Amino acid sequence: MKRTPRLHWISILLGLLVLMCVVSFHAYAAIRPEPVRQTGERHELPEGTLALAFHGGPDPKWTPRTLERLDRAGIKATFYVTGAQVTRHPDVARRVVAEGHRIGLDGFRAEGDLADPLNVALAQAALADALGVHTRLVGAPEEVDSGDREHQDMGTLVRMSLQEKKGVVRLHDDGSIGGDIVRELAKERGYRFVLVSDEQPVPASARERFTGAVTTWSQRNGGIVLAVFGTAIGIAALLGLLRTLMQLGLAHTDRRLRREQEPPPWFAPPVSVVVPAYNEALNIAATVTSIAANNHLADVEVIVVDDGSTDGTAEVAEELDLPGVTVIRQTNQGKPAALNAGVREASHDLLVLVDGDTIFEPDTVGQLVQPFADDDVGAVSGNAKVGNRQGLLGRWQHLEYCAGSNLDRQILHALRCIPTVPGAVGAFRREALDDVGGVSDDTLAEDTDLTMAVTRAGWRVAYRPEAKAWTEAPVSVHGLFRQRYRWSYGTFQAMWKHRRALVEKGPMGRFGILYLLAFHLLLPLLAPVMDLFVLYGFLVADAPLALVVWTVFLLIQTASAGYALRLDGESLRPLWAYPLQQVVYRQLMYVVVIQSLVTALHGTQLRWMSVRRTGRLLDAPGTVHVT
Hints:
The chain is α/β, with parallel strands linked by helices. The chain contains 19 helices and 16 strands. The chain is 51% helix and 13% strand. Helix 1 (7-30) packs across helix 19 (578-602), helix 5 (117-131) packs across helix 8 and helix 9 (284-292) packs parallel to helix 10 (313-320).
């Protein structure tokens, strides 16, 4: 199989870069900085010679009026425009040039710092996009200040403009006074009006035109992007709040009802345990030993299906020589084929399917089959826990299992629409498997695909939190990414395969797939927007409130995680790692979801990605000690 194309990573990174550039540029264009006065070089003009320099425009209302006054007086002036205004009103800038006036730059933003190369470069880019030219006139001179910012009396303004009887008169192009001053100055006798410079603009380069097009688009559409960001943040916040309320409500109610109900008589049917294994030599002995040491009151047979392992997995299992354990071999055909082979070999009608890296507690098998006392139950999910939770990465995965997967199952059990019986610990009724044609290899998440199919066939799927199983989690970031990437992509495949459930009347369509869409697809896609917006607000837009809001959400999520740990009977000590998990680990999970979606949109067939085993689970028979 070919390696997953790097184009997917490029798509993600490029998309994030474009978004951040657009909103950052929008902020740069919209936020007015503190004024920085710039003084251009002095122009030695003869006595009685004036050059009119308008700056701050072009303005859609006042610049046309000034142009009309100049035309009537027969005067040519120099307009030192700002890049942001040129982008907003390119037609007015074009009229300035078309009527014979010179164009210069006064920076990208009003009163910007012309010592900033970025400020000047963006202004030139705006001019290149609107007019196709590059100007060497940068920085409006301040030889004679007309006073049009401080005074309104026309006589005063004229006297101030003529105080040196020569030079460049600075005027503002964003108010009503400029045109009137032109009219009054034109009446003064003995004065000649010239341009600040005879130097013509030069054609802009292709690079400047391209940069101009990009900056113009960013300035004009940055507000839209920010509005979309705001909407996305609002939706993400609502989804996060809804999920928290469901966790606090449905999960708690489900547990309370379990405690209040009188326990039914203990159900002890014979059970077949199927263990598909591929290159599990490090863990298979602990797995099989723990299952064989069960205290179930009826017969338990164990069938290990070696799926073409190359590390001696079958030999390790056979050397155990445990009663009731059968090892069968087949060429490598994939996990679904191994499961189906084990099911065919099994003697009993209740089938426990367990991965080859999982350890059962002594009562796990017995606990797992209790819901089958109800004839409507076709499958049961157990409580998968991280066994190797040492180290920060292990703790993060432990928190994810408790505050994510297992809490989700509590909620979905209450809604009767559990979408996934995990491969680590699950059980099925043979009749339910026969109804759906066995385990399918259509997706990379065969457990989710199978569970959805069983539910759609009319069977109920239950969750038994007392049926605990300990699994080996990835010990490296690379291994974790590969595993979760496969899970996420396979889940999307299963959702697409079973999309017709949305128009059916069953619980999978009414709740299950919608829950996955909302909280396993939409929320992970939108949540990074909140993180990006926090960075934008804190670093770019000078909005520290964004950090406060994000912190409040983090506290709510931490409290919810603590509640999940309590529900699962776990210690609260690992909770200290949860805030850091949300800052670092959560971002990786976001990338997993985004990458999975991009992979699907690119139409790439993802290959099965196995995770390297370490054998770090304790192999004491039937017992797991986790610190």
